[in-house]
Amino acid sequence: MNFSKATPDYGGGLSLDELVGMPAGSIYGAKLPNGEAFQTVLRASGYMLQAELALYRLIEIWADGHTAWHGDKRDDPVVVTPSGQLIRTRG
Known about the structure:
Layout: H1 24-28, H2 36-50, E1 57-61, E2 67-70, E3 78-80, E4 86-88
C-alpha cells in the first residue's frame, strides 16, 4: 500500500461508499480502481475541478452515471451528468 498523501492507493478493497464525503480534488488525485463506476466518479471530479469546485464533496453516485456534490453550504448542490454538464440547484 502506498502511504503518500499525494496519491493515495486504496487497494483492491475500495468501495464506492468510501468515496462519498471526499472532495472532488482528493478524488481526482487518487489512484482508483479501473471499474466503470470508479471511472465515472473520477471523470465527474475532473469536471468539478474544471469548474473550480475542487472543495465540493461527493454526496451521491447514481446508477445512471450522474453524481451529486455539495460545498460548504447545504443549499448549493451540483449534479454532474455523464456528459459533463454541471447543473446547479437550490436545496
